[in-house]
Amino acid sequence: MKRNLPVVLQVGAGILIIVAVILVAGFLLSHVQMLSTPAGFTIIRPPDEVSTILVDGDIVWTGGKGGVILFDRINRSRQLLPPGAPEFGYVRGIGKDPGGSVWIAHDGGIARFSQNAWTVFDEHTGAPFSKALSVISRADGSIWVGTEGKIVQYTNGSWIEIVPPPSITLASADALLFDSSGDLWIGCGSSTHGGLFWYNGRNWTVYGMDNGLPHPVVRDVTESADGAIWVATGFANHGGAARYYGGNWTAFTTSDGLAGPSTRSVYEDKSGRMWIGSEYDGVLLRNKTSDRILTKKDGLAGNEVKVVREDQDGSFWIGTEGGLSVINATVLL
Counting Cβ atoms within 10 Å, is residue 45 exposed (0-12), middle (13-18) or buried (19+)? Predict the structure, then answer.
Protein backbone atom coordinates (compact mmCIF):
# COMPACT_ATOMS: atom_id res chain seq x y z
CA MET A 1 0.00 0.00 0.00
CA LYS A 2 2.84 2.37 0.88
CA ARG A 3 4.64 1.60 -2.39
CA ASN A 4 1.53 2.70 -4.32
CA LEU A 5 1.26 6.02 -2.48
CA PRO A 6 3.74 7.94 -4.67
CA VAL A 7 1.85 6.81 -7.79
CA VAL A 8 -1.41 8.05 -6.33
CA LEU A 9 0.22 11.35 -5.46
CA GLN A 10 1.67 11.67 -8.94
CA VAL A 11 -1.71 11.03 -10.55
CA GLY A 12 -3.39 13.52 -8.24
CA ALA A 13 -0.72 16.12 -8.93
CA GLY A 14 -1.11 15.54 -12.65
CA ILE A 15 -4.86 16.06 -12.46
CA LEU A 16 -4.40 19.27 -10.48
CA ILE A 17 -1.90 20.56 -13.04
CA ILE A 18 -4.28 19.82 -15.92
CA VAL A 19 -7.16 21.55 -14.12
CA ALA A 20 -4.93 24.56 -13.37
CA VAL A 21 -3.83 24.81 -17.00
CA ILE A 22 -7.44 24.67 -18.20
CA LEU A 23 -8.50 27.37 -15.73
CA VAL A 24 -5.58 29.65 -16.64
CA ALA A 25 -6.19 29.14 -20.36
CA GLY A 26 -9.86 29.94 -19.94
CA PHE A 27 -9.05 33.08 -17.97
CA LEU A 28 -6.55 34.26 -20.58
CA LEU A 29 -8.95 33.63 -23.46
CA SER A 30 -11.70 35.48 -21.60
CA HIS A 31 -9.36 38.39 -20.89
CA VAL A 32 -8.21 38.57 -24.51
CA GLN A 33 -11.83 38.55 -25.71
CA MET A 34 -12.73 41.42 -23.39
CA LEU A 35 -9.74 43.48 -24.55
CA SER A 36 -10.33 42.83 -28.25
CA THR A 37 -14.01 43.76 -28.52
CA PRO A 38 -14.87 46.26 -31.29
CA ALA A 39 -15.52 49.91 -30.54
CA GLY A 40 -18.95 50.39 -29.00
CA PHE A 41 -19.11 46.86 -27.57
CA THR A 42 -18.36 46.11 -23.91
CA ILE A 43 -18.08 42.68 -22.29
CA ILE A 44 -18.58 42.54 -18.52
CA ARG A 45 -17.58 39.55 -16.33
CA PRO A 46 -18.69 38.76 -13.72
CA PRO A 47 -21.47 37.86 -14.20
CA ASP A 48 -20.26 34.78 -16.06
CA GLU A 49 -23.82 34.02 -17.24
CA VAL A 50 -26.93 36.20 -17.51
CA SER A 51 -30.48 34.87 -17.89
CA THR A 52 -32.55 37.96 -17.05
CA ILE A 53 -32.14 41.75 -17.06
CA LEU A 54 -34.15 44.64 -15.64
CA VAL A 55 -33.23 48.24 -16.52
CA ASP A 56 -34.53 50.28 -13.59
CA GLY A 57 -33.64 53.94 -14.06
CA ASP A 58 -29.87 54.23 -13.71
CA ILE A 59 -29.53 50.76 -12.16
CA VAL A 60 -29.38 47.58 -14.23
CA TRP A 61 -30.32 44.39 -12.43
CA THR A 62 -28.89 41.18 -13.88
CA GLY A 63 -29.63 37.63 -12.76
CA GLY A 64 -28.44 34.15 -13.55
CA LYS A 65 -26.60 31.18 -12.13
CA GLY A 66 -24.46 33.48 -9.98
CA GLY A 67 -27.40 35.24 -8.33
CA VAL A 68 -28.07 38.98 -8.68
CA ILE A 69 -25.48 41.53 -9.78
CA LEU A 70 -26.21 45.26 -10.16
CA PHE A 71 -24.60 47.80 -12.48
CA ASP A 72 -24.62 51.54 -12.85
CA ARG A 73 -26.25 52.15 -16.22
CA ILE A 74 -24.12 55.22 -17.01
CA ASN A 75 -20.58 54.09 -16.21
CA ARG A 76 -21.36 50.34 -16.21
CA SER A 77 -19.57 49.80 -12.91
CA ARG A 78 -20.69 47.08 -10.54
CA GLN A 79 -22.82 48.21 -7.60
CA LEU A 80 -23.32 46.65 -4.19
CA LEU A 81 -26.60 44.91 -3.51
CA PRO A 82 -28.79 46.84 -1.05
CA PRO A 83 -28.13 45.76 2.56
CA GLY A 84 -30.05 42.76 3.83
CA ALA A 85 -30.28 40.97 0.49
CA PRO A 86 -31.08 37.24 0.85
CA GLU A 87 -29.01 34.45 -0.63
CA PHE A 88 -30.08 33.81 -4.19
CA GLY A 89 -30.23 30.55 -6.08
CA TYR A 90 -30.31 30.49 -9.86
CA VAL A 91 -32.12 33.73 -10.77
CA ARG A 92 -34.50 33.16 -13.67
CA GLY A 93 -36.62 36.31 -13.71
CA ILE A 94 -36.56 39.93 -12.51
CA GLY A 95 -39.55 42.26 -12.79
CA LYS A 96 -40.87 45.54 -11.46
CA ASP A 97 -44.40 46.36 -10.32
CA PRO A 98 -46.25 49.68 -10.84
CA GLY A 99 -45.32 50.75 -7.33
CA GLY A 100 -41.59 50.50 -8.05
CA SER A 101 -40.84 47.28 -6.17
CA VAL A 102 -38.40 44.85 -7.78
CA TRP A 103 -39.31 41.14 -7.73
CA ILE A 104 -36.72 38.40 -8.21
CA ALA A 105 -37.62 34.80 -9.10
CA HIS A 106 -35.00 32.23 -8.19
CA ASP A 107 -34.52 28.64 -7.12
CA GLY A 108 -35.20 29.56 -3.49
CA GLY A 109 -38.50 31.36 -4.08
CA ILE A 110 -39.26 35.06 -4.59
CA ALA A 111 -37.49 38.08 -3.16
CA ARG A 112 -38.94 41.61 -3.19
CA PHE A 113 -36.96 44.81 -2.82
CA SER A 114 -39.22 47.68 -1.84
CA GLN A 115 -38.55 50.97 -0.01
CA ASN A 116 -34.96 49.92 0.73
CA ALA A 117 -36.05 46.67 2.41
CA TRP A 118 -36.06 43.03 1.36
CA THR A 119 -38.88 40.54 1.79
CA VAL A 120 -38.56 36.81 1.15
CA PHE A 121 -41.47 34.68 -0.09
CA ASP A 122 -41.02 30.93 0.07
CA GLU A 123 -42.52 27.84 1.68
CA HIS A 124 -41.28 28.99 5.08
CA THR A 125 -43.21 32.27 4.81
CA GLY A 126 -46.44 30.80 3.47
CA ALA A 127 -45.91 30.93 -0.29
CA PRO A 128 -47.28 27.85 -2.13
CA PHE A 129 -44.01 27.12 -3.94
CA SER A 130 -40.33 26.53 -3.25
CA LYS A 131 -38.89 27.41 -6.66
CA ALA A 132 -39.85 30.36 -8.87
CA LEU A 133 -39.18 30.14 -12.60
CA SER A 134 -40.57 33.49 -13.74
CA VAL A 135 -42.26 36.61 -12.41
CA ILE A 136 -44.34 39.39 -13.95
CA SER A 137 -46.48 42.26 -12.72
CA ARG A 138 -49.92 43.00 -14.11
CA ALA A 139 -51.20 46.55 -14.66
CA ASP A 140 -53.40 46.23 -11.56
CA GLY A 141 -50.30 45.67 -9.40
CA SER A 142 -50.80 41.96 -8.84
CA ILE A 143 -47.72 39.74 -9.06
CA TRP A 144 -47.79 36.51 -11.05
CA VAL A 145 -45.19 33.83 -10.43
CA GLY A 146 -44.47 30.91 -12.72
CA THR A 147 -43.61 27.66 -10.96
CA GLU A 148 -43.55 23.97 -11.76
CA GLY A 149 -47.09 22.89 -12.65
CA LYS A 150 -48.98 26.11 -11.96
CA ILE A 151 -49.18 29.89 -11.85
CA VAL A 152 -49.44 31.69 -8.53
CA GLN A 153 -50.95 35.15 -8.12
CA TYR A 154 -50.04 37.49 -5.24
CA THR A 155 -52.61 40.19 -4.45
CA ASN A 156 -53.07 42.23 -1.27
CA GLY A 157 -50.86 39.91 0.75
CA SER A 158 -52.57 36.68 -0.34
CA TRP A 159 -51.49 33.88 -2.68
CA ILE A 160 -53.93 32.37 -5.19
CA GLU A 161 -52.97 29.21 -7.06
CA ILE A 162 -54.04 29.02 -10.70
CA VAL A 163 -53.90 25.44 -11.87
CA PRO A 164 -54.89 24.39 -15.42
CA PRO A 165 -57.73 21.88 -15.84
CA PRO A 166 -56.83 18.18 -15.68
CA SER A 167 -56.83 17.93 -19.47
CA ILE A 168 -53.86 20.36 -19.67
CA THR A 169 -50.36 19.56 -18.43
CA LEU A 170 -48.31 22.62 -17.49
CA ALA A 171 -44.94 21.14 -16.55
CA SER A 172 -43.29 24.50 -15.90
CA ALA A 173 -44.15 28.17 -16.40
CA ASP A 174 -40.76 29.41 -17.63
CA ALA A 175 -41.87 32.56 -19.45
CA LEU A 176 -44.80 34.90 -18.71
CA LEU A 177 -46.36 37.70 -20.74
CA PHE A 178 -49.45 39.83 -20.22
CA ASP A 179 -50.48 41.10 -23.65
CA SER A 180 -52.12 44.43 -24.41
CA SER A 181 -55.55 42.84 -23.85
CA GLY A 182 -54.58 41.68 -20.38
CA ASP A 183 -54.46 38.00 -21.31
CA LEU A 184 -51.67 35.78 -20.00
CA TRP A 185 -49.27 33.83 -22.23
CA ILE A 186 -47.17 31.11 -20.63
CA GLY A 187 -44.14 29.51 -22.22
CA CYS A 188 -43.14 26.04 -21.04
CA GLY A 189 -39.54 24.99 -21.69
CA SER A 190 -39.92 21.35 -20.68
CA SER A 191 -38.19 19.07 -23.18
CA THR A 192 -40.97 16.47 -22.78
CA HIS A 193 -44.12 18.53 -22.08
CA GLY A 194 -43.37 21.93 -23.59
CA GLY A 195 -45.84 24.28 -25.22
CA LEU A 196 -47.39 27.74 -25.28
CA PHE A 197 -50.43 28.37 -23.08
CA TRP A 198 -52.97 31.17 -23.34
CA TYR A 199 -55.18 32.03 -20.35
CA ASN A 200 -57.79 34.80 -20.31
CA GLY A 201 -58.89 34.34 -16.71
CA ARG A 202 -61.50 31.73 -17.61
CA ASN A 203 -60.36 29.57 -20.51
CA TRP A 204 -57.11 27.87 -21.45
CA THR A 205 -55.73 27.20 -24.94
CA VAL A 206 -52.59 25.21 -25.70
CA TYR A 207 -50.43 25.76 -28.79
CA GLY A 208 -47.90 23.23 -30.04
CA MET A 209 -46.44 21.96 -33.29
CA ASP A 210 -49.86 20.78 -34.44
CA ASN A 211 -51.14 24.34 -34.54
CA GLY A 212 -48.29 26.65 -35.45
CA LEU A 213 -45.16 26.34 -33.31
CA PRO A 214 -41.86 25.26 -34.92
CA HIS A 215 -40.97 23.33 -31.74
CA PRO A 216 -42.83 22.47 -28.51
CA VAL A 217 -40.11 23.83 -26.18
CA VAL A 218 -40.95 27.51 -25.58
CA ARG A 219 -38.16 29.68 -24.18
CA ASP A 220 -39.48 33.25 -24.42
CA VAL A 221 -42.62 35.23 -25.35
CA THR A 222 -43.09 38.91 -26.17
CA GLU A 223 -45.62 41.22 -27.85
CA SER A 224 -44.56 43.61 -30.60
CA ALA A 225 -45.98 47.10 -31.05
CA ASP A 226 -48.43 45.90 -33.69
CA GLY A 227 -50.02 43.46 -31.24
CA ALA A 228 -48.36 40.31 -32.61
CA ILE A 229 -47.16 37.63 -30.19
CA TRP A 230 -43.61 36.43 -30.85
CA VAL A 231 -42.33 33.14 -29.47
CA ALA A 232 -38.82 31.68 -29.22
CA THR A 233 -38.77 27.90 -29.41
CA GLY A 234 -36.19 25.16 -29.70
CA PHE A 235 -34.02 22.53 -28.13
CA ALA A 236 -30.61 21.20 -29.24
CA ASN A 237 -30.41 22.06 -32.96
CA HIS A 238 -34.14 22.14 -33.67
CA GLY A 239 -36.72 24.88 -33.44
CA GLY A 240 -37.32 28.41 -34.68
CA ALA A 241 -39.29 31.56 -33.94
CA ALA A 242 -42.99 32.10 -34.49
CA ARG A 243 -45.33 35.09 -34.85
CA TYR A 244 -49.03 34.95 -33.96
CA TYR A 245 -51.22 37.66 -35.44
CA GLY A 246 -54.87 37.76 -36.43
CA GLY A 247 -55.38 34.15 -35.43
CA ASN A 248 -52.60 32.89 -37.71
CA TRP A 249 -49.11 31.59 -37.02
CA THR A 250 -46.02 32.32 -39.12
CA ALA A 251 -42.88 30.26 -38.44
CA PHE A 252 -39.30 31.44 -38.99
CA THR A 253 -36.23 29.23 -39.39
CA THR A 254 -32.64 29.67 -40.56
CA SER A 255 -33.94 29.78 -44.14
CA ASP A 256 -35.73 33.00 -43.11
CA GLY A 257 -32.53 34.49 -41.73
CA LEU A 258 -32.41 33.28 -38.11
CA ALA A 259 -28.94 33.03 -36.59
CA GLY A 260 -29.53 29.41 -35.58
CA PRO A 261 -32.26 26.77 -35.57
CA SER A 262 -32.90 26.80 -31.82
CA THR A 263 -34.12 30.19 -30.57
CA ARG A 264 -33.67 31.45 -27.02
CA SER A 265 -35.16 34.96 -26.81
CA VAL A 266 -37.37 37.48 -28.63
CA TYR A 267 -37.40 41.25 -28.07
CA GLU A 268 -38.61 44.33 -29.97
CA ASP A 269 -36.64 47.54 -29.44
CA LYS A 270 -37.90 51.12 -29.55
CA SER A 271 -37.12 51.41 -33.25
CA GLY A 272 -39.31 48.43 -34.08
CA ARG A 273 -36.40 46.08 -34.76
CA MET A 274 -36.86 42.49 -33.65
CA TRP A 275 -34.03 40.73 -31.82
CA ILE A 276 -34.21 36.94 -32.06
CA GLY A 277 -31.55 35.27 -29.94
CA SER A 278 -30.35 31.77 -30.69
CA GLU A 279 -29.11 29.02 -28.41
CA TYR A 280 -25.73 28.54 -30.09
CA ASP A 281 -25.32 31.03 -32.95
CA GLY A 282 -25.74 34.61 -31.75
CA VAL A 283 -28.65 36.95 -32.35
CA LEU A 284 -30.54 38.13 -35.41
CA LEU A 285 -31.29 41.86 -35.51
CA ARG A 286 -34.14 42.17 -37.99
CA ASN A 287 -34.98 45.48 -39.61
CA LYS A 288 -37.80 46.02 -42.07
CA THR A 289 -35.25 46.36 -44.87
CA SER A 290 -32.22 44.37 -43.72
CA ASP A 291 -30.94 41.75 -41.29
CA ARG A 292 -27.80 41.58 -39.20
CA ILE A 293 -26.42 38.69 -37.15
CA LEU A 294 -24.19 39.37 -34.14
CA THR A 295 -22.00 36.66 -32.56
CA LYS A 296 -18.92 36.41 -30.34
CA LYS A 297 -16.84 37.31 -33.40
CA ASP A 298 -18.71 40.61 -33.58
CA GLY A 299 -18.19 41.43 -29.91
CA LEU A 300 -20.81 39.53 -27.90
CA ALA A 301 -19.84 37.84 -24.63
CA GLY A 302 -21.38 34.56 -25.79
CA ASN A 303 -23.37 32.99 -28.60
CA GLU A 304 -26.37 31.91 -26.52
CA VAL A 305 -28.39 35.12 -26.33
CA LYS A 306 -30.80 34.66 -23.44
CA VAL A 307 -32.11 38.19 -22.98
CA VAL A 308 -31.93 41.62 -24.67
CA ARG A 309 -33.01 44.90 -23.08
CA GLU A 310 -32.73 48.49 -24.31
CA ASP A 311 -32.06 51.32 -21.87
CA GLN A 312 -33.37 54.88 -22.07
CA ASP A 313 -30.32 56.08 -24.01
CA GLY A 314 -30.70 53.41 -26.68
CA SER A 315 -27.88 51.15 -25.53
CA PHE A 316 -28.51 47.41 -25.45
CA TRP A 317 -27.79 45.12 -22.51
CA ILE A 318 -27.47 41.53 -23.67
CA GLY A 319 -27.31 38.49 -21.40
CA THR A 320 -25.50 35.40 -22.67
CA GLU A 321 -24.08 32.13 -21.38
CA GLY A 322 -20.67 33.82 -21.46
CA GLY A 323 -21.43 36.99 -19.56
CA LEU A 324 -22.96 40.43 -20.11
CA SER A 325 -22.58 42.53 -23.27
CA VAL A 326 -23.44 46.21 -23.71
CA ILE A 327 -23.72 47.75 -27.16
CA ASN A 328 -23.63 51.52 -27.43
CA ALA A 329 -26.62 53.18 -29.08
CA THR A 330 -24.61 54.66 -31.95
CA VAL A 331 -23.18 51.31 -33.11
CA LEU A 332 -26.44 49.96 -34.53
CA LEU A 333 -27.86 53.11 -36.12
Answer: middle
